[in-house]
User: What shape does this take?
Amino acid sequence: MAHALQWTRSLVFIGQMYLMMALIALFFTPWAIASQRGALAGIRCWCRWVRWSARWMVGLRSEVRGEVPGGAVLVAAKHQSFFDIIILFSELPRPRFVMKKELNRVPILGWYARRVGCVAVDRGKRGRAIRQMLEDAAQDSGAQSKQTQGQLVIYPQGTRVAPGATRPYKIGTGLLYQELGQPCVPVACNVGVFWPRRGIMRKPGLAVVEFLPAIEPGLEVKPFMATLEDRIESASDRLMAEAGFHKDGQT
Assistant: This one.
């Protein structure tokens, strides 16, 4: 009975979440057309609405730990579900995400993502995709001042990875770190314990996104990737254990 009730609450929550996406996007569209600041404000407004409504509708609270970067940095984050994107966007001052090219065609989301300067990558082209990502990121960073270029967010594993699952870290993050010459802030999370990659059910609890100490520029790609993976995975394991998740998938 309790499971069915939580599932129903989750379904209602998801429905209103996407309805509010359309309404908030429509409200902010004139400002978003006139200024990138308007697009950022619209997305941030919706992300904060989702976090607030998740708390009272399905009992899913969210918390951010660590120092949120405010300058020009590369943010390399653990990606478990849509919720970690929402939390990051609600907290970072000027985020731009490296995203799959297919998202450009998604109504509302695609237009707003392009408007705030997200970098679209064609994942099917591998080597060419990496070169294009490096060129786009470097061009966007070069076109803006150090104070305004913001935080470029990349998911080193390239996709959502369920709690307890393993997936290799892709070299593109290391090449981007080397190309940009910026500090890299690793980010750990446990959000997938409560908000899965797929499905309706949203579980009550405390979803945490944690900003870890920055990796300063200057490392070679291989040691950088090893350091990055160790920091993100160990911190994410700690956060998932805190949430009651164990490696066998039981909570």
Summary: Residues 47 and 233 are 25 Å apart (CA to CA).
